[in-house]
Amino acid sequence: MKIAFVPLAGSTMLTVSFVLGCGGDSKPFGTTGTPPTPSSTAAPKHAAHGTGPHEGAVADWGGGKYHVEFTVDHDKQEATVYVLGSDEKTAAPIKAKDGKLLLSIAQPAFQVELIAAPEAGESGGVASKYVGKHEKLGIVQEFAGSISGEAEGTPYVGEFKEEPHP
Known about the structure:
Elements: H1 5-20, E1 57-61, E2 66-73, E3 78-84, E4 100-105, E5 110-116, E6 129-133, E7 144-151, E8 154-161
Antiparallel strand pairs: 1-2, 2-3, 3-6, 4-5, 4-7, 5-6, 7-8
């Protein structure tokens, strides 16, 4: 009796591809404690976002409803994430669950809890700026990873990748 491994392997790969999906749309983040990982082969539905208004890497968050911009200050070992509107330029204050977002960096793998740091005029538990510190943010490199959080009861995750500065 022969056992056909090829169809099983093919269906397993198809299942894995289906489960992982292809980037572009923001997906709810897991609760397992495992950081979401960026897909290196997925083509986003939207054109490349480029550099944000704070000179950071921009990611889609919510199918275009929101965008998040990742910036890092290596000297301070600090990351700042800005929540932007659909235009990718205007601050979009959100009420994040517990006032926090989660930054997950792929290489070297680590996570940073980002705490709300409301800008002038933002009150009532909403903020468009979130800040966190980690010693590995002091590494001078282009970071890639994801930013996840829950805004107004809806979970979001967006993947970003810094590009070298000219």
